[in-house]
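Cross-check.
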Amino acid sequence: MSVFTDAELRYLTGGHQLGRIATVGADGTPHVVPVGWIYNAARDAIEIGGIELEQSKKFRDIARTGRAAPAGGSRSAAGPRRSRCRRR
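Predicted model, tokenized:
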């Protein structure tokens, strides 16, 4: 049995393999970067990959804190990706 719901599994196996991951730097600043991922059904896990992943800031942040989060929604091929930032 999967830890994912049926709806989540449909999304994970639906070809959406680009996302963003958020981590927190040692100085407390957020770090959000695009990542490629695949759903590994045998392990029932989402696996994130990349070139020289072990040397990346996101890898160091996760190794230090043990935490990461998906950031934003999926990107549709039908439209541009947009982000908004507000200064407070």
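The chain has a mean pLDDT of 83. The domain at 6-70 is CATH 2.30.110.10 (Pnp Oxidase; Chain A). Passed to J.P. for a second look.
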